[in-house]
Amino acid sequence: MKTSPVKIIFPILLFCLSVFSVSKASAQIDSIKALYNSATSVDEKLKHLDKIARLYQQSQLDSAKVYARKEIKLAVENENSKYTILGNNWLGRAFFVKGYNDSAIIYFRKCYDVSVKAENKLYAAYSLQSIANYYLEKSLFDSTIYNYRKSLELLKELDDERGISNVYLNLSLTYRKMGDYGLAMKNVYKAIQNRQKNNDIKGIANGYKSLANIYLQMENHDSAIFYYRKVLSFPDVLKRSTSLSSLYNNIGVAYEGMFSYDSSLYYYKKALKIRSKADYYEGVSISYMNIGNIFKFRKQYDSALAYYEKSRKIFSDIKYDHGLTHNYFVTANLYDSISQFDSSQFYYKKCYNLAVKYKIPDYISKAAYGLSYSYSMLGNDSEALSFYKIYKSYEDSLFNKETSEKIGWARAKFSFDKKLFKEEMKRKQLKKYIVVISTALFILIFLLWFIYRQLHLKKKLIKKLIAKDKAINCPPFQKTVINDKGLIIAGKHQTPDKKIIEEIKTKLSEWEKQELFTNPKADIEMLSEFCNTNTSYLSFVLNRSLQLKFTEWVNRLRLKKAKELLEDPDKLKKLNISGIAIESGFNSKATFYKYFKQDMEITPNRYIKSI
Questions:
Q1: CA dihedral defined by 425, 431, 434, 435, rounded to 10 degrees?
Q2: Chosen domain end from 410, 436, 463
Q3: Are 89 and 124 in contact, with CB atoms under 8 Å apart?
């Protein structure tokens, strides 16, 4: 059977686009970092830190957190409320996207508190929306609506029409999740009317998109596709890759619901292409999973598993555990379909463990049911019964939760006023406990520091004992005089004889030829074992023969290897700079950049351009 050329060329083009986008985004961040390093004023530094934190939100959330913390620290030191708020916002968003919602809410509340203190109503309004998003994720709808309405009041005071429309759309989303489609549509129409009044084309398009989402949840797929296509008629939408890819993805979902798998696959692939080009890793992973689902429905199981694997790898790389939870579930479900219950059990367990870790009741219930079924099919009735009990207990609790949410919504009007009073009382009580909590935290930190110090001292002692034990079988080597650069210039007693020195030199050459320095864990103890000597003799030979310390010598070898790889176009294309850093023996890209710039006085990127 002949393979279609499109099936061969499309993945290659996709790969090339992703490589280009990654390098482009990295270059943009590198240029802003250079501006930050050369900035002289605090305002300029804060401005560049904020841009870096924002750009890292799209791809590297851990890096986003690092720069957001730098931004907060510098802003607090200089009493700059604006960037204190923005830094806490980026930090909260990074935690929120990774699924650490309880950590995220701490920073969203800090945003709000600083905004209120600085009398910045606009930032206070947006902070309240972030807090509302947290409650929405937790399905605490009365608190969600309460915070959105507080935000709405502030935005009305400021006559921020765009902000007001956004709150209406967020309220619509809340009601949609509650299943109250009437109120959901009512708020969307308010948002659209508001945007039409101000001739806000982008806002009108967002309103139609929200309408389409409501119809999609109602499983009215024809109406959903009608409004999605209406959004596509707005030229501004086509310019924004994130919005466009989301639209294509949702149209794909609608066609999937209508069992039009060819149309669905077409739109999923369009979304994937845009997300890959935009370096939107989470979106790429979701697209891979959606495409995998289509192949599963078509019973092309090998292709489905391949796409699930691609999705899983990206979720794992960006450490998005909530996405992994869903991926494990759909993978397990596929293995159930083909009666490979050992494999389905493996993935259900992974799904169950993550769901328990992050307290996701829906997936705990689903995974428990899947495990019950797989154990039953494998003949392990006791385990099947055990997981079925877990499934039933969660199903009952989820039913009770749904019922209680409906009752809570009926009482929401009363609870809003009551909540205002309770919050005021909590603030007063909080002041009483600050001293006690601070003292307890101080004691805890001191105890942790003390334990760490004891463990560190113990580790150092063990290392000394090991080194002493190694030296027992080697000829005695006395202390030497060392200059201020750490190099041996004279020995007080007998030095190694020439034979031993030559043997060590031979071993060093072998070590270099075998490129054992490319092991990131290579240290002087490992090298001394290779040379059949102790660290004292080895240091003596390195210092006398090369006038270098061990670390300097090893890093020179690694830099030499890295330059060879950078000058090889095939290797550079295959590995990229991060891969070359690891291949050369550096344990991270940052370490590689540091030593390369020290040696060459330019960055690796500029070195490549200069070749």
A1: -140
A2: 410
A3: no
Q: Are residues 446 and 395 in the same domain?
A: no
CA–CA distance from 12 to each of 9, 295, 311, 488, 507 (Å)? Answer: 5, 20, 17, 55, 45
Q: Which two tokens stand for residue 393?
A: 């207990």
Q: What is the largest CA-CA distance in the chain?
A: 93
What separation in angstroms does the CA of 159 have from each of 76, 130, 199?
A: 30, 20, 16
- Pairwise CA distance, residues 283 & 350, whole Å: 22
Q: Are residues 354 and 464 in the same domain?
A: no
The half-sphere exposure of 254 on its side-chain side, counting CA atoms within 13 A, is 24
* Residue numbers of the domain that contains 538: 481-610
Give the model confidence (pLDDT) of 149-187 as tens digits: 999 999 999 988 888 888 999 998 899 888 888 888 899
| Residue 169 domain-assigned (yes or no) | no
Of 105, 21, 92, whose CA–CA distance to 61 is shortest? 92
Q: pLDDT by residue (tens digit) across 67-120?
A: 888 888 988 989 898 899 998 998 888 888 877 888 889 999 999 999 999 999
The reply to whether 522 and 446 lie within a common domain is no
Strand, helix or coil for residue 300: coil
Which of 356, 377, 410 is at the close of a domain?
410
